[in-house]
Amino acid sequence: MRFAKGHGTGNDFLILPDPDGAIGVPPDLVARLCDRRTGLGADGILRAVRVRAAGDAVPGGTTGPAGAAEWFMDYRNADGGAAEMCGNGIRVFARYLLDHGLAEGPELAVATRAGLRLVRAEPGGDYTVDMGAPAVGGRAAALIGSGRHEGLAVSLGNPHLACVVDRPVAEFDLTAAPGIDHDQFPDGVNVEVVRLLGERHLEMRVHERGSGETMSCGTGAVAAAAAAAVTVGVAANGMGGGGAAREAGPSSGNGQPHLAGAWTVQVPGGTLTVTLTETTSLLTGPAVIVAEGELDRAWLAAQPVATA
């Protein structure tokens, strides 16, 4: 089994090339590969499989919208659980495909569990992903350390709870999973703490379901920008309360000019740019391939049987 190791602003992944869907990645194997002491170490795994070979794993099937893509990004969190979308991972995924001549650029379509996503290699070396319109939901709360913090539910295909706070995000303890209302988030949720630093400028940290605290989260950066835009919109309109915030979301088409535009998002692993428009969101940032290699046969033979 060959692999590549890559990262996007410190959010690191193992890429497993599996064009014909032959190897499978059961949860136990994913968890052992992602173990930072006894495995290779990563926040998650990106299995690169052709859409025609991925079968029922591809939403919409091979003849639906996802059929417009040649490759399916089968993303698994470090605990082995499947996830819908990964904004940092898809940039690394696209970089690997383009570097190996497995896709033609500079723009390519990638199928994900959250639907089709377009990725573009930028002239300066960064990659931009069309993440779709953030779906801004209602208010919810998370218990972070000993504090209760209100947040805004935002979906990018995967669920987020972005909590805008008024002190540096470095002060929050995200080593343990925040407490959440499981009735509101039955599949779990990624929790972000977000602080506004200036006009369209924010800092963010995240605890990802299935992976723990990570150095960065691409979908989380978009969710954070959306929550910050709502906060700015509410303040600008002199509104308050959850209902007003819901009405001021960046995907609501309400014409608020300050909600759109490019947001600089600082994460522990670097800087991302999120561009919000009236119809979609774009995520721009680096994609780095660190190394490539092959798993030791004896180590692999000792792991769980590789069935999907």
Describe the protein.
The chain is globular. It has a 17-stranded mixed β-sheet that branches. The protein has six helices and 17 strands. Helix content is 18%, strand content 38%.
Q: Care to give the gist of this entry?
A:
This protein has 308 residues and is α+β, with helices and mostly antiparallel strands.
List the helices and strands and how they pair.
Layout: E1 2-8, E2 11-17, H1 27-34, E3 44-50, H2 51-54, E4 71-77, H3 87-99, E5 107-112, E6 115-121, E7 127-130, E8 135-144, E9 147-155, E10 159-164, E11 190-198, E12 201-208, E13 212-214, H4 218-236, H5 242-247, E14 261-267, E15 270-276, E16 281-285, E17 288-294, H6 297-301
Parallel strand pairs: 2-3, 4-5, 10-11, 12-14
Antiparallel strand pairs: 1-2, 1-17, 3-4, 5-6, 6-7, 7-16, 8-9, 9-10, 11-12, 12-13, 14-15, 15-16
Structural class: alpha+beta
Average pLDDT works out at 89
Task: List unreliable stretches of 5+ residues.
Answer: 239-258
Q: State the share of residues found in helices, binned by percent.
A: 10-25%
Number of DSSP strands? 17
> C-alpha Rg, in Å?
19 Å
Percent of residues in β-strands: 35-45%
Offer a few descriptive terms.
38% strand, alpha+beta, 6 helices, 18% helix
